[in-house]
């Protein structure tokens, strides 16, 4: 395969959630190489790690993310795409550490204090990571102080706050205020089932997104500004 052909194949397998050759999913790609093998082959053939990230993983995750936003695919499809991308990112990690590949920036994400829900945060994390960002995941039930410490340790970062309950979404306001108190220009994105744009505006967050792709679109616009 040419460099372009293997990058197109990586993007397709990322989008479809084809992790490796042994993976039975999706059925129409059974027995074919997945993201893991294709990424290894591309690196061995001297394909630029940045091209694998942008034209492979990012292209595939972007397509599945947009389909998810339009309800053309669903959470299991997004999860499989994320797992496939993770397999490839494991291959790319040494190249990021060596400086051969570059991230767009750093994104800190966590589920706010009192909330133990992880799935929404996980999907956003995978989409942002697939979009070329370094992601620091603070986990669930994360106190405002934990976000503040992470922001101090990562100047120039962006932050994402997740909540799934009406009883915990109120804790977002305290977290936003704590972040803005020490770093007023740090962009804060909020998301979760009970949230609205009105609530986002009320608590002083910079953006609200109803889905992972929207969060990535905001970050890309922010860095381009």
What features would you describe in this structure?
The chain has 225 residues and is an alpha/beta fold. It folds into two domains: 3-98, Methionine synthase domain (Methyltransferase, Methionine Synthase (B12-binding Domains), Chain A, domain 1, Orthogonal Bundle); 106-224, Rossmann fold, CATH 3.40.50.280. It contains ten helices and five strands.
Write the layout of secondary structure elements.
Layout: H1 3-16, H2 35-44, H3 49-69, H4 75-98, E1 106-111, H5 119-130, E2 134-137, H6 144-153, E3 158-162, H7 166-169, H8 171-182, E4 188-191, H9 197-203, E5 207-208, H10 212-224
Parallel strand pairs: 1-2, 1-3, 3-4, 4-5
Helix pairs in contact: 1-2, 1-3, 1-4, 2-4, 3-4, 4-5, 5-10, 6-8
Record keyword descriptors for this entry:
alpha/beta, Methyltransferase, Methionine Synthase (B12-binding Domains), Chain A, domain 1, 2 domains
Instruction: Give the C-alpha Rg.
Output: 18 Å
Strand order of the largest sheet: 2-1-3-4-5
Largest sheet: 5 strands, parallel
CATH architecture of the largest domain: 3-Layer(aba) Sandwich
